[in-house]
């Protein structure tokens, strides 16, 4: 069940945050871990995000162009504002990505299925950004009737 956060006046239950990120956080999504490897989940999820109207920004050390979008080796290398950072890296590395997302001014951080770091979530929320963990927009978009 979603609950009201009295400090912000926002509903902050899991589905409310997911819906807010998907509909209101902005249209530029950096996908950390996205490469041209079609067998990786990031490849398919990035395509779903594009079909949902989001601009995807591949972020991977190889800086490959994926789905027609040029890649960058790190979030800090992206030369324009990023609204949401979608994280496809192992949980032990995800906290550093979340910190970088906050540093570049992202409005939200999304940890994919299996990616969990409660301390990172606390830091992101303390910085005023939204965050979800262990979720997938390719599942949540149709589940919430958004696409």
Quick recap of the structure?
The protein has helices at 14-24, 41-51, 91-103, 118-126, 137-143; strands at 4-5, 10-11, 28-32, 55-59, 84-87, 108-111, 130-132.
Explain how this protein is built.
This protein is an alpha/beta fold. The protein is built from 5 helices and 7 strands; from the N terminus they run ββαβαββαβαβα. The protein has helices spanning 14-24, 41-51, 91-103, 118-126, 137-143, and strands at residues 4-5, 10-11, 28-32, 55-59, 84-87, 108-111, 130-132. A 5-stranded parallel beta sheet has the order 4-3-5-6-7, with helices on both faces. A two-stranded antiparallel ribbon has the order 1-2. The longest helix is centred in the middle third of the chain and has 13 residues, at 91-103. Mean pLDDT is 92; it is low at 1-11.
């Amino acid at each position: 069940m979603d609950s009201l956060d009295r400090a912000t006046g926002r509903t902050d239950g899991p589905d409310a945050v997911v819906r807010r990120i998907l509909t209101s956080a902005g249209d530029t999504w950096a996908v950390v871990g996205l490469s041209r490897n079609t067998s990786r989940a990031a490849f398919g999820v990035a395509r779903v995000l594009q079909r949902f109207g989001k601009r995807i920004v591949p972020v991977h050390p190889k800086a490959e162009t994926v789905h027609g979008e040029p890649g960058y080796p790190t979030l800090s290398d992206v030369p324009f504002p990023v609204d949401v950072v979608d994280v496809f890296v192992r949980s032990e590395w995800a906290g550093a990505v979340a910190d970088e997302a906050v540093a570049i001014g992202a409005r939200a951080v999304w940890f994919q299925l299996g990616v969990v770091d409660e301390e990172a979530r606390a830091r992101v929320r303390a910085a005023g950004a939204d965050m979800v963990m262990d979720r997938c927009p390719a599942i949540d978009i149709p589940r919430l009737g958004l696409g």
